[in-house]
Design goal:
183 residues, alpha/beta, Rossmann fold, 5 helices, globular
Length: 183
Amino acid sequence: MGKRVLLLTGAPGVGKTTLLSKVVDELRAKGLSVGGMISREVRDGCARMGFEVIDLNSGKHGWLAHVDQKTGPQVGKYRVNLADLERIGVEAIAEATQKCVAVAIDEIGPMELFSAKFKIAVKKALDSSKIVLAVVHAKAKDPLIAEAKSRSDAEIFVVTKQNRDGLVDLLTGKATSSSSTNP
């Protein structure tokens, strides 16, 4: 039986989010329902201003973190917007876990892990029978990440600029074969 939890990791800027987005598109083109959340960086010219959190099904979006955010936990030059993360990201993961064949999570990383509700939603997705496609921060140390990586039904893919394009078909195939064994 194929692995059901597909974890993407790798250096910053290597294309993990883009890869996940392409796999989501391919799965949808094959008729599979996919939901969850994705994070995208937002730039003003050359300067990164923050990260947006987006619900893959509804298109709702808000700030995950921003340089001008006045409150919330700080990660580098950004402050995390827990309200938007929980209102959009956590709800998207919970809904996908209930209603979709596959759950996409981008990312399980330092910003998101400040939210207990996020951790609960991710844990429920991991413990469900759904396919889980998740970007996992390469250096973050958290029990949830350690648990996800050590699962017997998980497979870890280290994304590089050299292999990222080939991983689209590989991950799509693995998720598609898992969907037929995990209704």
